[in-house]
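Workshop exercise sheet. Pairs work together: one partner reads the sequence aloud, the other fills in the structure field after running the prediction. Swap roles for the next sheet.
Pair: D.N. / O.F.
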Amino acid sequence: MKLLVGHIDGKSAVYAVKGEAAKNLTRLMPEVGGDLMQLIANPALLAGLSFDGIAGEEIAVSQITPALPVANPGKIICLGLNYIDHIKEGGYEVPDYPALFMRSLDSLMPAGAPMVRPSCSEKLDYEVELMLIVGKGGRHIAEQEALGHVFGYTVFNDGSVRDYQRKTHQWTPGKNFDQTGAVGPFVVTPDELPEGATGLKIESRVGDEILQSASTSDMMWSVARTISTISEYTTLRAGDLIAMGTPPGVGHAKKPPRWLRPGEVVEAEVEGIGICYSPVVDEKDLSTDGRAS
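Structure field:
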């Protein structure tokens, strides 16, 4: 099933989506709640449901303002180097263990919300990524069992402030500026996609300008292998987010570099899941409540 967490008139709900139409699952089943956590905890709530079988009126997806699929994920773990050509364009050696880093919740925002270029840098870059939402947690998860721990897949744009990323061997500053990591808006359950979400076109663009274009089959660490590897060192919990790295074509590797500029709208798309779009704004143009003015 294709799902969307969002709100109309400020009231958050979970919607089932088909094409450009949506139905309010939360209204049908109040136990679903306002984000995906109740469905993650009780997957039986989705069992046997189909869009056409859901009662209630259809509304246009465009009427819904997206929210984060999981309002308060426990962990946000990201792979930094997972496509060979992206590793080469960044000047790194091909690793034999995934480059892992973490993001804070403050660095995330839902699709459609502004991606903020900070006042201290003009080097805001884009990175389209496949992201998975952990359904069933665990530790020391075997690779052959790992896909059973996935609730669904979404799209992530890992906005990166490159000069701050390069200030230290640890990438934390450049990957954690407020409102630089766009998530969503759609989450698709594994039964709707190829196993492990492989073979999907993954692309970023601004208008007609294609910035990145590749396939998720090019990932060095598969979804299953990544889950297994991460679970060696930490207990994964339901609702954790794992971003699977970006393909080649990022702005800092282009000649001259191609940074995101205020006024642009960047789109990150994964085939079969959807488009995560973000208008780019300058931090100085935000009001005191963090909204675009």
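Discussion prompt: The radius of gyration is 18 Å. What would you look at next?
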